[in-house]
TrEMBL record:
<dbReference type="InterPro" id="IPR005320">
    <property type="entry name" value="Peptidase_S51"/>
</dbReference>
<protein>
    <submittedName>
        <fullName>Probable alpha-aspartyl dipeptidase</fullName>
    </submittedName>
</protein>
<dbReference type="GO" id="GO:0006508">
    <property type="term" value="P:proteolysis"/>
</dbReference>
<comment type="similarity">
    <text>Belongs to the peptidase S51 family.</text>
</comment>
<keyword id="KW-0378">Hydrolase</keyword>
<dbReference type="InterPro" id="IPR029062">
    <property type="entry name" value="Class_I_gatase-like"/>
</dbReference>
<dbReference type="GO" id="GO:0016805">
    <property type="term" value="F:dipeptidase activity"/>
</dbReference>
<dbReference type="Pfam" id="PF03575">
    <property type="entry name" value="Peptidase_S51"/>
</dbReference>
<dbReference type="GO" id="GO:0005737">
    <property type="term" value="C:cytoplasm"/>
</dbReference>
<keyword id="KW-0720">Serine protease</keyword>
<dbReference type="GO" id="GO:0008236">
    <property type="term" value="F:serine-type peptidase activity"/>
</dbReference>
<keyword id="KW-0645">Protease</keyword>
């Protein structure tokens, strides 16, 4: 059952000209208020210093009226997740994050809480990558080796956070981001949504909407790509 989904997938926690998470405040508060969230359980495993990372998120959310607790401080992870009001999986290195989720046996537990209980899920960057089918389309270096690239599959498509189109007139002769994403699509036959900075995906049950102030780029399984405007209904991507 996926009708309970209440998810926000951010391209990034930072946007030029804004404080940490500031650009997404309206989106975050919309999600939190939809479930009467007062305390957010933060998952800091994508960065090395879990305490510092949790403090960064706490400093951003507490002035808005939300408490922040770090999952790494909980002696019983299963109990913490089952009792959580909302979960926020932060960005960093996607390979490290996914490996840790496997090591702690958290994938099935998080998936169950989000898809069946309706636990609100916020992902940013790496946290967005692990919310999708797999981490194949991350931009990160494989500094760690997870047992599989398969991830939470809270949504049945892949996302490329921090998407940048090729620079017009560039003299760079290496592969572009577009070429790498097109390669994934060709091999796997699955769509990839390129999320530019400042954009996000809001999923409510079987409905998905592109949020932000700029377009996202959809790489299609049949080939080619399409620019999607803000507020576009992208619920078709939820169809397996």
């Amino acid at each position: 059952m996926v009708s309970a989904r209440n998810i926000l997938l951010l391209s990034s926690s930072r946007l030029h000209g804004h404080g940490y998470l500031e650009h997404a405040r309206v989106q975050l508060e919309d999600l939190f208020k939809s479930a009467s969230v007062k305390t957010v359980l933060f998952v800091p495993y994508a960065l090395r210093d879990h305490e510092k990372y949790t403090a960064t998120v706490r400093n951003a959310l507490e002035p808005w009226g939300y408490n922040v607790e770090g999952l790494h401080t909980k002696p019983d992870l299963e109990k913490a997740l089952k009792e959580a009001q909302a979960i926020f999986v932060g960005g960093g290195n996607t390979f490290v994050l996914l490996r840790t989720l496997y090591q702690l046996n958290l994938l099935d537990l998080i998936r169950e809480q989000v898809l069946q209980r309706g636990l609100p899920y916020v992902g940013s960057s790496a946290g967005t990558n692990v919310a999708t089918r797999s981490i194949h389309t991350t931009n990160d270096m494989p500094v760690a080796y997870p047992p599989s690239f398969e991830a939470l599959a809270l949504v049945p498509f892949n996302i490329n956070p921090h998407y940048l189109e090729p620079e017009p007139g560039s003299q760079h002769k290496g592969e572009t981001r577009d070429e790498r994403l097109e390669e994934f699509v060709a091999y796997h036959g699955l769509p990839v949504l390129g999320l530019r900075e400042g954009t996000s995906v809001r999923v409510q049950g079987e409905k998905a909407t592109l949020l932000g102030d700029r377009c996202a780029k959809l790489f299609k399984p049949i080939g080619g790509a399409e620019e999607l405007a803000p507020q576009t209904d992208i619920s078709f991507l939820l169809q397996k």
